[in-house]
């Protein structure tokens, strides 16, 4: 998974389920899911079942950010153990194609 940028603590089972669910959120411009694109930096679920997803976008002016946010929240809330969801949108570290998984690079025709 592309959550290598998380805070360093291993994901809980609930956090892993959220990450799995987020793989169904496809960036409509690129046709690849947001996890493999490397857009998800961290997922944290607390004792009150609040899920905080720290993420970025490929560009600051991403025209599909509202659509992605809605789908991300829907997928998180559909996960057992999550009652509320908040997105923490960050711009550092800056996203780059190097953050994509091998799967995403192959899907987009990027060869290294």
TrEMBL record:
**Pfam families noted in UniProt:** FeS_assembly_P
Supply the InterPro entries for this chain. Fe-S_Maturation_MIP18, FSCA_dom_sf, MIP18-like
The chain positions of domain MIP18 family-like read: 16-87
Gene3D superfamilies, per the entry: Fe-S cluster assembly (FSCA)
Name under which the protein is recorded: Metal-sulfur cluster assembly factor
């Amino acid at each position: 998974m592309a959550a290598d940028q998380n805070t360093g603590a291993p994901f809980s089972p609930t956090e892993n389920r959220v990450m799995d669910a987020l793989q169904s959120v496809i960036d409509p411009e690129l046709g690849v899911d947001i996890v493999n694109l490397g857009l998800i930096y961290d997922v944290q679920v607390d004792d009150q079942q609040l899920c905080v997803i720290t993420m970025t976008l490929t560009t600051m002016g991403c025209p599909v950010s509202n659509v992605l946010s809605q789908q991300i929240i829907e997928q998180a809330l559909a996960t057992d153990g999550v009652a509320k969801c908040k997105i923490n949108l960050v711009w550092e570290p800056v996203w780059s194609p190097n953050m994509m998984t091998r799967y995403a690079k192959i899907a987009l025709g990027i060869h290294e």
